[in-house]
Amino acid sequence: MELQSPKVTHHNYHFLLSAIALLLGFNLLYILRLNAKKRRKSKEIERKLSNDAVNGGLQLTEAGGNIDVIIVGAGVAGAALACTLAKVRCSNSNLSNRLIFASTVLISMIHDSDLSFPSDGRRVHVIERDLTEPDRIVGELLQPGGYLKLIELGLEDCVDGIEAQQVFGYAIYMDGRNTKLSYPLEKFESDISGRSFHNGRFIQRMREKAASLPNVKLEQGTVTSLFEKNGTVQGVYYKTKDGQTMTAHAPLTIVCDGCFSNLRRALCKPKVEVPSCFVGLVLKNVDLPYANHGHVILADPSPILFYPISNTEVRCLVDVPGQKVPSIANGEMANYLKTVVAPQIPNELYDAFVSAVDKGNIRAMPNRSMPADPQPTPGALLMGDAFNMRHPLTGGGMTVALSDIVLLRDLLRPLRNLNDPTTLCNYLECFYTLRKATGVVYDKHVGGCSIQGLNPSPVSTFLRCGYIRCRPSPDPGASGIIFPIIKSEGVRQMFFPATIPAYYKSPQVA
Fold it and tell me: For domain 69-161+197-270+370-429, is the CATH number 3.50.50.60?
């Protein structure tokens, strides 16, 4: 019995040590977890304090999800861009795409970029101030070249079901004479033409298409500023529909918030000019003298436009020179339209025009002109009317935007990882240069200033306008529009792009 006692004591001793060790282990684990929580909480407080300092004391909530691209604005440019970047990649089917594709591969090799060829689209977060259907009097006529770009982007069905009208050219009226100028569409299928429509209906169709894609988040909110760190844009600050202040982060932010952009000044030095105003009317149940054609009256003091926007409606736009126009509220505008404009309207449209004036639904919108003068910024890009505006008389704004989207899509296609700001900035700088040489200015057939977008050569445009200027009865509208564009865009950039450093990174011009 006495010999067994030490064994029991020894066994109890080991049990006691094990219990103490286990207790100490639990205690140490608890302390470690507590310290980790404190560190996380401290970092959260530090981040919130930092955000509060940047945003004037506002508490911010971060939008969830891993996003590749933030798009500010869901108008024509923003909605089309969201669809394009989010959709499944397609193969490079034509020479132009293959050349751009080769250029991006070369740039990536030079800058040691991360390349891959994924089948899934980008994850896109679109933030739009107002998702209700827009009601505008411009952006209603898409030239044939723009429709071809719509097809290339797979968005041609967005003009279906909105009473869009085919447009095959322009009728020109001047000094009691008129003629018809048709687009050179002989080599194209019968479906290829211009399209005219209600701008809001077109935009809503594209928004619906974008929202249907699983990797697109379409949100109503107002972007207040860009989120920038160490000179690189990393996202945006915005307010949701219910007023909550949020942050959204992405390696690429594309600003497409239109002609009234509040982010433009952060990315370029805008020089916006307002040479005139468009005064808009809608004529009901009237047939245009030349069916499926836009009509341009070269009137005094400035042109008047007519084109169909639905099965029963014709848009009339009167260009009124100057920034200060007759008042709509006190009846001065109605009087101006009846006494100055109406006598120059073709007889077939006179009664419908006067009737529309009498109904009083007269709207005015300033015509803005702003050259593309970007300030390359890592992590951010300007597109659409936020970036580059031409006089709406040219009718080329949507065509230019869609062409830019095709170019950007093809430039970014080989890049899997957008998180390298330096490499991404090189690609975006190439975009700014390439767009000038591949279609910023479109082929003009004046008498009617019809920018069809079928021949995007700046040289061709210049030669046509030079020919028009040298005719016995030159059209001041042509040279008055094209030459300021050339001056503002840059002669070197438009006609000698290969001399621009960002351009000769691209082998397609070699």
Answer: yes
β-pair partners for 305 = 296, 317
Cis status of the peptide bond prior to 270, with omega within 30 of 0: no
User: Residue 506: which pLDDT band, with cuts at 50, 70 and 90?
Assistant: very low
Looking at the domain 273-368, which fold is it? D-Amino Acid Oxidase; Chain A, domain 2 (3.30.9)
A 10 A CB-CB count for 293 gives: 25
For the chain, the domains span 1-59, 69-161+197-270+370-429, 273-368
pTM, entire model:
0.74
List Cα–Cα distances, 395 to 7, 57, 349, 418, 486, in angstroms: 101, 45, 22, 34, 17
Question: How buried is 455 (Cβ within 10 angstroms: 0-12 exposed, 13-18 middle, 19+ buried)?
Answer: middle
How many residues in total does the chain contain? 510
Q: Give me the sheet containing 141-142, strands edge to edge.
A: 141-142, 194-196, 165-167
Instruction: Give me 348's structure tokens.
Output: 């077939």
| SS3 state at 468 | helix
Do residues 260 and 308 lie in contact, with contact meaning Cβ atoms separated by under 8 Å?
A: no
DSSP 415: B
Cβ neighbours of residue 496 closer than 8 Å, sequence gap 6 or more = none
Q: Measuring CA to CA, which residue among 83, 74, 75 is closest to residue 408?
A: 83
Q: Sign (positive/negative) of CA torsion 261, 262, 268, 272?
A: positive
CA distances from 421 to 425, 455, 503 (A): 6, 34, 19
Distance between CA atoms of residues 463 and 305, nearest Å = 25
pLDDT tens across 244-269, in order?
A: 999 999 999 999 998 888 898 888 88
Note the pLDDT tens digit of each residue in 6-28: 444 455 555 566 666 666 665 55
